[in-house]
Amino acid sequence: MATALAAQLARIAASSTNSLDLKAQKKAHSQSLLFDKRVAASQDFDTIYQICIEGYQELCQIDSRFSTFARGLFSEQSKREERTQMTAAQNKELDGVVESFLGLVGGRLLLKPAVKAVEWLVRRFRSVTSGNPAGGIAFVSWPWQQLI
User: Fold this and answer.
1) What are 21-46's pLDDT values in tens digits?
2) Where are the alpha helices (DSSP H) in the chain?
3) Cα end-to-end distance, the chain, whole Å
4) DSSP labels, 82-94
5) Would you give the distance in Å from CA 87 to the centre of its chain?
6) Predicted model pTM
7) Rounded to whole angstroms, how far apart are CA atoms 23 and 41?
């Protein structure tokens, strides 16, 4: 019995994303394309969402194909979604939606609205740290602060 419990605890620990590790959470929250780490760490999701949704709405004006992401990635509900609380299937589905968005926005990454919209993926959905190949976002290493 104790061995079964130990095995269950080991599986939980292995699949855990350290949701109780406050230092890891703060580090993940401070990853940003737009802001210095100290500024990013101090922002709440309402503030981030407001900045990012403005960029997203401008993208929708440029190209109506972006409007398909309004109900998911850029919905009010997305402020409450947490990757660490999603099932593997939900994360896989989210990865697919993120990949679709990145495929569409890729040609517009030098536009401020595009960078603002991608910021939401980085900050809310942790697209850089989630393990999603598309979320590796090769362009994250660019010096965005110089472009904006």
Assistant:
1) 556 666 666 788 898 888 888 898 89
2) 2-15, 22-29, 37-42, 45-62, 88-105, 112-123, 144-147
3) 58
4) -GGGS-HHHHHHH
5) 16
6) 0.71
7) 11
